[in-house]
Amino acid sequence: MTGSDASPSFRLAYVPGVTPTKWVRIWNERLPDIPLTLVQVSAAEALGALRGGEADAGFVRLPVDGADLSAIPLYTEATVVVVPKDHVVAAVDEVSTEDLADEIVLHPLDDTLDWERPPGQPAFERPANTADAIELVAAGIGLLVVPQSLARLHHRKDLTYRPLTDAPESRVALSWPQDATTDMVEDFIGIVRGRTVNSSRGRSKPAEEKQQPKPKRQPAAGTRRQPTTGKPTARNPRAGSGGTRTSKSGGRPGKPRRRS
């Protein structure tokens, strides 16, 4: 099968913590003939996947470096600190980075927060990823600061989290290669931005699908169409009077005269 014969498909990358379910559902409703394939990638690999053609578009975490990628910021996540349920932090509603000054705070290699200086005391070794850091928190080795969606993703019964009020926040965006802004990418952008299926900025419809003007209704065969207004004609000598003969006084219709 050649490339031109292959059925079209749309590949959507997404980083951990992003839930694309809503947008995928809308895509399947509007474009049922074009399958959408989800490609899960790490935050560090997401931009490379777009540049390498492994996905047509993707939900990534900002910043997006380079002028070759377009990005539409979507939302900003709250930042939380993950702690054991019996930790003192679990007893309060929220904390600041100053409250963590004496705590060991784990800083995994896949950290998505743009720290000038991570809070707390550094661990002897940086965990390889967030999942490993969660295991260390459960073991009582230290605490972990992450976007709230990652805390939910790695939820455990023995752990909890609290908002960290003065920490950097993580922003999620839809990104795609600028030189590959295809019709399908435009379709997905419209879905993410909440455009309706009839939006003028969506994909243009084929000519045969565009709404045609309604034809004028023709009278049924065998019926004569009489004008309702205008000058009298041979077929309608009483045009303009409604076709009803009235008396000069404007009362009831007069009786027809008897022919002598």
TrEMBL record:
The keyword Transcription regulation applies. Residues 195-260 are annotated as: Disordered. InterPro entries: LysR_subst-bd (IPR005119). The keyword Oxidoreductase does not apply. Keywords: DNA-binding, Transcription, Transcription regulation. Belongs to the LysR transcriptional regulatory family. This is LysR substrate-binding domain-containing protein. It comes from Streptomyces ossamyceticus. The lineage of its organism: Bacteria, Bacillati, Actinomycetota, Actinomycetes, Kitasatosporales.
